[in-house]
Amino acid sequence: MSGAVNDRRRINGPARSVEPIYTPTVLDSVAKGRSDGRGLDHMRPIYAKAGPISDAQTTASASGSAFYEQGSIRISCAVYGPRSARKPNARRAHFVCDFQYAPFACSKRSPTQSTDEHETSLWLSNTVGPAIRLEMYPKSSIDAYVTVIESDGKMATLAATINCISLALADAGIETYDTVAACSMGLRDSQWIVDCTHQENAECSVLVAYMPSVDEVTGVLQTGKTTLEVHEQGVQLCTNVCVRVYAVICRALQASVE
After folding, report:
1. What is the pTM for the complete model shown?
2. Contact, 68 vs 51, CB < 8 A?
3. Closest C-alpha to 109, from 97, 96, 118, 100
Protein backbone atom coordinates (compact mmCIF):
# COMPACT_ATOMS: atom_id res chain seq x y z
CA MET A 1 0.00 0.00 0.00
CA SER A 2 1.21 3.50 -0.78
CA GLY A 3 0.40 6.85 0.75
CA ALA A 4 0.73 8.31 4.19
CA VAL A 5 -1.41 7.11 7.07
CA ASN A 6 -2.97 9.88 9.18
CA ASP A 7 -3.19 9.32 12.92
CA ARG A 8 -6.46 11.00 13.94
CA ARG A 9 -5.65 10.67 17.62
CA ARG A 10 -2.58 12.86 17.39
CA ILE A 11 -2.86 16.62 17.91
CA ASN A 12 -0.50 18.40 15.57
CA GLY A 13 1.64 21.18 16.96
CA PRO A 14 0.48 24.76 16.56
CA ALA A 15 1.17 26.48 13.29
CA ARG A 16 1.61 29.79 15.04
CA SER A 17 1.18 31.45 18.43
CA VAL A 18 -0.88 34.53 19.17
CA GLU A 19 0.51 36.98 21.68
CA PRO A 20 -1.99 39.17 23.59
CA ILE A 21 -2.10 42.85 22.63
CA TYR A 22 -0.28 45.01 25.15
CA THR A 23 -0.33 48.70 25.85
CA PRO A 24 2.94 50.36 26.93
CA THR A 25 3.15 50.72 30.70
CA VAL A 26 5.65 51.96 33.24
CA LEU A 27 6.57 48.39 34.11
CA ASP A 28 8.18 47.91 30.70
CA SER A 29 10.94 50.35 31.53
CA VAL A 30 11.92 48.53 34.73
CA ALA A 31 11.85 44.95 33.46
CA LYS A 32 14.84 43.20 34.96
CA GLY A 33 15.87 39.63 35.55
CA ARG A 34 13.52 37.83 33.13
CA SER A 35 15.43 35.25 31.15
CA ASP A 36 13.14 35.46 28.11
CA GLY A 37 13.30 39.26 27.93
CA ARG A 38 9.61 39.82 28.65
CA GLY A 39 8.33 42.86 30.46
CA LEU A 40 7.00 42.46 33.98
CA ASP A 41 3.40 42.62 32.75
CA HIS A 42 3.87 40.51 29.62
CA MET A 43 2.59 36.96 29.26
CA ARG A 44 4.15 34.26 27.16
CA PRO A 45 2.73 33.87 23.63
CA ILE A 46 -0.57 31.97 23.61
CA TYR A 47 -1.85 29.44 21.10
CA ALA A 48 -5.39 28.14 21.55
CA LYS A 49 -7.45 25.80 19.39
CA ALA A 50 -10.99 24.59 19.93
CA GLY A 51 -12.21 21.17 18.85
CA PRO A 52 -9.09 19.04 18.16
CA ILE A 53 -10.55 16.04 20.02
CA SER A 54 -14.23 16.47 19.18
CA ASP A 55 -13.34 16.67 15.48
CA ALA A 56 -11.88 13.16 15.54
CA GLN A 57 -14.06 10.54 13.87
CA THR A 58 -14.26 8.18 16.82
CA THR A 59 -17.18 6.60 18.65
CA ALA A 60 -16.12 8.18 21.93
CA SER A 61 -15.59 11.70 20.59
CA ALA A 62 -15.98 14.47 23.15
CA SER A 63 -18.79 17.03 23.10
CA GLY A 64 -16.14 19.74 23.07
CA SER A 65 -12.39 19.98 23.44
CA ALA A 66 -9.49 22.41 23.40
CA PHE A 67 -5.72 22.55 23.14
CA TYR A 68 -3.96 25.41 24.91
CA GLU A 69 -0.32 26.40 24.73
CA GLN A 70 1.34 29.23 26.66
CA GLY A 71 5.09 29.28 26.21
CA SER A 72 6.27 25.86 27.41
CA ILE A 73 2.88 25.02 28.96
CA ARG A 74 0.76 22.59 26.94
CA ILE A 75 -2.68 21.44 28.04
CA SER A 76 -5.53 19.49 26.46
CA CYS A 77 -9.11 19.32 27.71
CA ALA A 78 -12.10 17.22 26.67
CA VAL A 79 -15.66 17.97 27.82
CA TYR A 80 -18.36 15.28 27.87
CA GLY A 81 -21.98 16.17 28.44
CA PRO A 82 -24.51 17.10 29.32
CA ARG A 83 -25.23 13.41 29.93
CA SER A 84 -27.33 11.43 32.40
CA ALA A 85 -26.34 11.93 36.01
CA ARG A 86 -26.25 9.40 38.82
CA LYS A 87 -28.88 11.45 40.68
CA PRO A 88 -31.91 11.43 38.36
CA ASN A 89 -33.89 13.91 40.50
CA ALA A 90 -31.28 16.68 40.54
CA ARG A 91 -32.63 20.06 39.49
CA ARG A 92 -29.20 21.30 38.44
CA ALA A 93 -26.38 19.73 36.49
CA HIS A 94 -23.29 18.51 38.31
CA PHE A 95 -19.97 19.81 36.97
CA VAL A 96 -16.88 17.70 37.65
CA CYS A 97 -13.31 18.39 36.57
CA ASP A 98 -10.66 15.67 36.42
CA PHE A 99 -7.15 17.15 36.44
CA GLN A 100 -4.05 15.04 35.74
CA TYR A 101 -0.41 15.55 34.88
CA ALA A 102 1.12 13.44 32.13
CA PRO A 103 4.01 11.31 33.47
CA PHE A 104 6.47 13.48 31.53
CA ALA A 105 4.80 16.85 32.24
CA CYS A 106 7.17 17.93 35.03
CA SER A 107 10.93 17.71 35.40
CA LYS A 108 10.42 15.90 38.72
CA ARG A 109 7.38 13.90 39.74
CA SER A 110 6.40 14.57 43.36
CA PRO A 111 5.38 11.61 45.54
CA THR A 112 2.29 13.59 46.61
CA GLN A 113 1.32 14.48 43.04
CA SER A 114 -1.79 12.26 43.11
CA THR A 115 -3.09 14.14 46.17
CA ASP A 116 -2.32 17.47 44.51
CA GLU A 117 -4.20 16.40 41.39
CA HIS A 118 -7.28 15.51 43.47
CA GLU A 119 -7.26 18.83 45.33
CA THR A 120 -6.69 20.75 42.11
CA SER A 121 -9.63 18.94 40.47
CA LEU A 122 -11.94 20.06 43.28
CA TRP A 123 -10.64 23.64 43.13
CA LEU A 124 -11.10 23.81 39.36
CA SER A 125 -14.66 22.46 39.66
CA ASN A 126 -15.50 25.17 42.21
CA THR A 127 -13.79 27.89 40.15
CA VAL A 128 -15.20 27.17 36.68
CA GLY A 129 -18.55 25.78 37.88
CA PRO A 130 -20.10 29.17 38.86
CA ALA A 131 -19.78 30.33 35.24
CA ILE A 132 -21.95 27.47 33.92
CA ARG A 133 -25.74 27.77 33.82
CA LEU A 134 -26.23 24.48 35.63
CA GLU A 135 -29.97 25.05 36.06
CA MET A 136 -30.35 24.69 32.28
CA TYR A 137 -29.32 21.03 32.45
CA PRO A 138 -31.35 19.23 35.15
CA LYS A 139 -30.67 15.55 35.85
CA SER A 140 -27.37 15.86 33.95
CA SER A 141 -23.64 15.91 34.52
CA ILE A 142 -20.92 17.80 32.69
CA ASP A 143 -17.41 16.35 32.94
CA ALA A 144 -14.15 18.02 31.95
CA TYR A 145 -10.99 15.90 31.64
CA VAL A 146 -7.77 17.89 31.68
CA THR A 147 -4.30 16.56 30.86
CA VAL A 148 -1.23 18.70 31.43
CA ILE A 149 1.18 17.65 28.70
CA GLU A 150 3.92 20.03 29.81
CA SER A 151 4.13 22.29 32.85
CA ASP A 152 6.26 25.38 33.45
CA GLY A 153 5.31 27.13 36.69
CA LYS A 154 2.58 25.69 38.94
CA MET A 155 0.37 28.78 39.20
CA ALA A 156 0.79 29.63 35.52
CA THR A 157 -0.18 26.05 34.64
CA LEU A 158 -3.34 26.29 36.75
CA ALA A 159 -4.28 29.58 35.08
CA ALA A 160 -3.73 28.05 31.64
CA THR A 161 -5.86 25.06 32.69
CA ILE A 162 -8.82 27.33 33.48
CA ASN A 163 -8.48 29.03 30.09
CA CYS A 164 -8.36 25.64 28.37
CA ILE A 165 -11.48 24.39 30.20
CA SER A 166 -13.38 27.57 29.29
CA LEU A 167 -12.47 27.10 25.64
CA ALA A 168 -13.57 23.45 25.69
CA LEU A 169 -16.89 24.29 27.38
CA ALA A 170 -17.66 26.87 24.71
CA ASP A 171 -16.73 24.37 21.99
CA ALA A 172 -19.16 21.88 23.56
CA GLY A 173 -21.98 24.43 23.38
CA ILE A 174 -22.47 24.53 27.15
CA GLU A 175 -24.42 27.63 28.22
CA THR A 176 -22.41 29.89 30.51
CA TYR A 177 -22.82 33.34 32.00
CA ASP A 178 -19.42 34.26 30.56
CA THR A 179 -16.10 32.72 29.60
CA VAL A 180 -13.71 32.46 32.54
CA ALA A 181 -10.22 33.82 31.89
CA ALA A 182 -7.39 33.33 34.36
CA CYS A 183 -3.97 34.82 35.01
CA SER A 184 -1.25 34.34 37.61
CA MET A 185 1.37 36.68 39.07
CA GLY A 186 4.39 36.34 41.30
CA LEU A 187 5.78 38.86 43.76
CA ARG A 188 9.52 39.46 43.59
CA ASP A 189 11.42 42.44 45.02
CA SER A 190 8.09 44.13 45.87
CA GLN A 191 6.99 44.00 42.22
CA TRP A 192 4.30 41.83 40.66
CA ILE A 193 5.46 39.76 37.69
CA VAL A 194 2.94 38.31 35.23
CA ASP A 195 3.02 34.64 34.22
CA CYS A 196 6.06 33.40 36.17
CA THR A 197 7.94 30.39 34.85
CA HIS A 198 9.33 27.55 36.96
CA GLN A 199 12.76 29.23 37.07
CA GLU A 200 11.42 32.57 38.30
CA ASN A 201 11.31 32.19 42.07
CA ALA A 202 8.55 34.31 43.61
CA GLU A 203 8.06 35.17 47.28
CA CYS A 204 4.30 35.10 46.83
CA SER A 205 2.00 34.06 43.98
CA VAL A 206 -1.62 34.88 43.23
CA LEU A 207 -4.04 33.50 40.64
CA VAL A 208 -7.34 35.12 39.65
CA ALA A 209 -10.17 33.61 37.58
CA TYR A 210 -12.33 36.40 36.18
CA MET A 211 -15.41 36.83 33.97
CA PRO A 212 -14.85 40.17 32.20
CA SER A 213 -18.32 40.62 30.67
CA VAL A 214 -20.14 40.36 34.00
CA ASP A 215 -17.21 41.76 36.02
CA GLU A 216 -17.13 38.91 38.54
CA VAL A 217 -14.26 36.93 40.07
CA THR A 218 -14.95 33.20 40.32
CA GLY A 219 -11.78 32.19 42.14
CA VAL A 220 -8.66 33.51 43.85
CA LEU A 221 -5.70 31.38 44.91
CA GLN A 222 -2.62 32.64 46.75
CA THR A 223 0.56 31.05 48.01
CA GLY A 224 2.94 32.83 50.39
CA LYS A 225 2.35 35.77 52.70
CA THR A 226 1.87 39.43 51.88
CA THR A 227 0.03 42.49 53.16
CA LEU A 228 -3.60 43.18 52.28
CA GLU A 229 -2.69 46.21 50.17
CA VAL A 230 -0.13 44.29 48.11
CA HIS A 231 -2.61 41.43 47.70
CA GLU A 232 -5.32 43.76 46.41
CA GLN A 233 -2.83 45.31 44.00
CA GLY A 234 -1.93 41.86 42.64
CA VAL A 235 -5.60 40.89 42.23
CA GLN A 236 -6.33 44.12 40.35
CA LEU A 237 -3.36 43.61 38.02
CA CYS A 238 -4.47 40.03 37.38
CA THR A 239 -7.98 41.10 36.40
CA ASN A 240 -6.51 43.60 33.92
CA VAL A 241 -4.44 40.87 32.28
CA CYS A 242 -7.44 38.50 32.29
CA VAL A 243 -9.24 40.90 29.95
CA ARG A 244 -6.43 40.47 27.42
CA VAL A 245 -6.46 36.69 27.80
CA TYR A 246 -10.24 36.76 27.34
CA ALA A 247 -9.75 38.43 23.95
CA VAL A 248 -7.38 35.63 22.85
CA ILE A 249 -9.91 32.94 23.89
CA CYS A 250 -12.69 34.71 21.97
CA ARG A 251 -10.46 34.95 18.92
CA ALA A 252 -9.77 31.20 19.08
CA LEU A 253 -13.51 30.47 19.30
CA GLN A 254 -14.19 32.72 16.35
CA ALA A 255 -11.51 30.94 14.33
CA SER A 256 -13.07 27.54 15.11
CA VAL A 257 -16.37 28.46 13.43
CA GLU A 258 -14.95 30.21 10.37
Report:
1. 0.84
2. no
3. 100
